[in-house]
Amino acid sequence: MTVNISSPNTAGLRELQEEKALRHLVGVLREAQESLAARHGKRVPMLVKIAPDLSDDDIDACGRVLSDLQVDGVIATNTTVDRLSIEGHPLAGEPGGLSGAPLYGKSTAVLRRLRSRLDAAIPMIGVGGILSGADAAGQIAAGARLVQFYTGLVYRGPDLIGECVDAIRRLREGVPA
């Protein structure tokens, strides 16, 4: 189950990433998760999805809270509301989250910082701007255990999957790109 508190398209949702609100929300959900697991004999993993637009202090706070509460995983990140990378583009003023190549740097930076602050036992899924095998390997190198992509499939098609698998395999084997 994914607790997505990072969508830029839902008013006020990202405020749940503030430390106190995050601790309360995830704490209540973790209690319910364990209660349901005991009742039904099956534990469903819970991952939390965060935004790429968090400040360093907010990322640090997320790391503390999510480590303290021992979530099952973190998805870093959703789409961005930052339009600096596309400033001047005719569609730069469109509402909603921005995905694709302009997101990669922000997503990877959040992933890297959070990985260094999060309990090492908590896996991370890297998402954001993965349009090549090198991008996928870059997210793995930044601390992701898995990668997830959407926009890359739109622009590159299913061949992107094999390219990413090959690049990650080479990275893990220590073979230069």
Fill in the keyword field for this structure.
177 residues, alpha/beta, TIM Barrel, 5-stranded parallel β-sheet, 5 strands, globular
**What is the class in the CATH system?**
Alpha Beta
Shape field: globular
Beta strands, count: 5
Alpha-carbon distance between the two ends: 34 Å
Low-confidence stretches: none
Largest sheet: 5 strands, parallel
* Helix share bin: 40-55%
CATH topology: TIM Barrel
Determine the strand fraction and express it as a percent band. Answer: 5-15%
By CATH, the superfamily comes out as Aldolase class I
Strand order of the biggest β-sheet = 1-2-3-4-5
Helical run tally = 6
Number of separate domains: 1
Q: How would you state the average pLDDT, rounded?
A: 92
CATH-defined architecture: Alpha-Beta Barrel
Rg, rounded, reads: 17 Å
Give the structural class: alpha/beta
**Which sequence of SSEs, written as H and E, runs from N to C?**
EHEHEHEHEHH
Outline the structure in words.
The chain has helices at residues 19-40, 56-68, 104-117, 133-141, 151-156, 159-173, and strands at residues 2-4, 47-50, 73-76, 124-127, 146-148. Helix 4 packs across helix 6 (159-173). The chain is an alpha/beta fold and 177 residues long. Helix content is 45%, strand content 10%. The termini are far apart.
Task: Give a quick summary of the entry.
The protein is an alpha/beta fold. It has helices spanning 19-40, 56-68, 104-117, 133-141, 151-156, 159-173; strands spanning 2-4, 47-50, 73-76, 124-127, 146-148. The chain has a single domain (2-173), classed as TIM Barrel.
